[in-house]
Design a protein that fits this description.
The protein folds into four domains: 43 residues; 61 residues, Arc Repressor Mutant, subunit A (Orthogonal Bundle), CATH 1.10.10.10; 44 residues, Arc Repressor Mutant, subunit A, CATH 1.10.10; 66 residues. By secondary structure, it is α+β, with helices and mostly antiparallel strands. The radius of gyration is 29 Å and the shape is rod-shaped. The longest helix has 27 residues. It contains ten helices and four strands. It has a four-stranded antiparallel sheet. Helices cover 64% and strands 11% of the residues. It starts with a strand and ends with a helix. 22% of the residues are buried.
């Protein structure tokens, strides 16, 4: 058996330590994995391999946490990220199980957060949102559940109101064409687009006419 002769923190990464066996460098471990080791401890031949396997699992988990610290991710995105970093398939699956148990990998939660964020900052129709979630690897049933509460007429009005303020004083036909095209590109259906465009046109021109009347008076 080999004896641990020293456990030294790495200079570049204080969360990892270098393990020396019988006076020679042997391998590195995450600090949390090495926490139960001590200088003078003897390691059986299979113990080293077990420690390195545990270290690989911890490294994959910590990579995932850093990836998730930027924003929530779908399971598909996490898989792609770990595969990009050459994580073995068995460790990848174990990492996902651990993330799920800690509620850090949840496609339903991810889809709801994605839809809520879009509704708040860049309103879109269900068709566009479904396509975006599909690209993120979210299954159709999970996506549809997240989209069930999307109020397309209200969101179309929200998006169109902001856009209309940037369009200036256009004649009706041009106003209708441009605003309708904008909403269509955002994935809204015609059933939501047509009444919203007419509503905003009427509201805008009703306000303008009222202002003109006040000036004339």
């Amino acid at each position: 058996m080999a004896r641990i002769s020293s456990i030294e923190p790495q200079k570049r990464d204080p969360d990892r330590v270098n393990i020396h066996l019988d006076g020679d460098y042997a391998f590195a471990l995450a600090g949390v994995v090495a926490a139960r080791l001590r200088v003078g401890q003897e390691l059986a031949p299979g113990s080293v391999a077990a420690l390195q396997a545990e270290d690989a699992r911890e490294d994959a988990y910590q990579r995932s946490l850093r990836f998730l610290s930027i924003r929530t991710r779908s399971e598909s995105e996490i898989r792609q990220y770990l595969r990009k970093h050459k994580v073995a398939d068995d460790i990848l699956e174990q990492t996902l199980v651990r993330l799920r148990s800690n509620r850090l990998a949840d496609d339903g939660q991810f889809a709801r957060a994605w839809v809520e964020n879009r509704n708040t900052f860049r309103p879109r129709g269900q068709r566009a949102l479904a396509w975006e979630l599909q690209r993120k690897g979210v299954s159709a049933p999970v996506a549809q559940a997240a989209l069930a509460t999307v109020d397309e007429p209200a969101l179309a009005y929200q998006a169109a109101s902001k856009r209309a303020r940037q369009m200036g004083d256009l004649p009706w036909e041009e106003f209708r064409r441009k605003l309708s095209g904008f909403l269509a590109r955002r994935g809204f259906p015609y059933s939501a687009i047509a009444p919203v465009v007419s509503r905003i046109w009427n509201e805008t021109h009703s306000t303008q006419n009222k202002s003109d009347d006040e000036v004339i008076t």
